[in-house]
Amino acid sequence: MKEYKYKINGEEYNVVINEVADTTAQVEVNGTAYTVEWEKPAAPKPVVVAKPAAPAAKPVAPAAQAAPAATPAAGAYAIKTPLPGVIIDVKVNVGDTVAKGQTVAILEAMKMENNINCDRDGKVVSIAVSKGETVADGAVLITLE
C-alpha cells in the first residue's frame, strides 16, 4: 500500500494505491474506492539489421541493448513500478534475500523520490533496471523467487 498527497487547483487529494495488477490498480481517493485501468504498452517492433555485403576483417560484437523485461518464470514474483519515472537507485543485488516492506529501489516521478518496497519476502533472481534508466508504468524492476 502506498499513500500519496496531491494538491490540484488548490484542492487536496489523499490517494492510496492498494493493489496493482497487470493493467489495473485498486486505489482510494479521499476515501472513495476506484479501479483504475490502463492499456498495455504495444510490443516493441523488431529491429531489422541488414547483413554487410562482405564480412569485416575482424567481427565486432554488437553493443548490448536493453531488452524488454520478460515475464517472470512460474513461481517467480515481479516487483513492478507503480508509475513512470527515472530509477534513482537500486538498493539490492542479485542473490540478496529481501524482506516484506524493504526498499528495493528509488524512483523519481513528478520531481518526487518514491521508495519501491518489496511486497513479500524472497530472494532476488534478476534486476531489470539500472540507475538513471527511465521506466514506464508497470515495468518489471526486480524478480524474486
The radius of gyration computed from the alpha-carbon positions, rounded to a whole number of angstroms, is 19 Å
Percent of residues in helices: under 10%
Structural class: mainly beta
Mean pLDDT: 81
Question: Strand content of the residues, in percent?
Answer: over 45%
Give the spatial strand order of the biggest sheet. Answer: 1-2-3-4
Number of strands: 12
| Weakly predicted, low-confidence segments | 63-70
Number of helices: 0
Intertermini distance: 21 Å
Secondary-structure element order, N to C: EEEEEEEEEEEE
Oligomer: single chain
Report on the structure:
This protein has no helices and 12 strands. It has 145 residues and is mainly beta. It has a 4-stranded antiparallel β-sheet with strand order 1-2-3-4, with no helix packed on it. Strands 5-12-10-7 form a 4-stranded antiparallel β-sheet, with no helix packed on it. The radius of gyration is 19 Å and the shape is globular. The two termini are 21 Å apart.
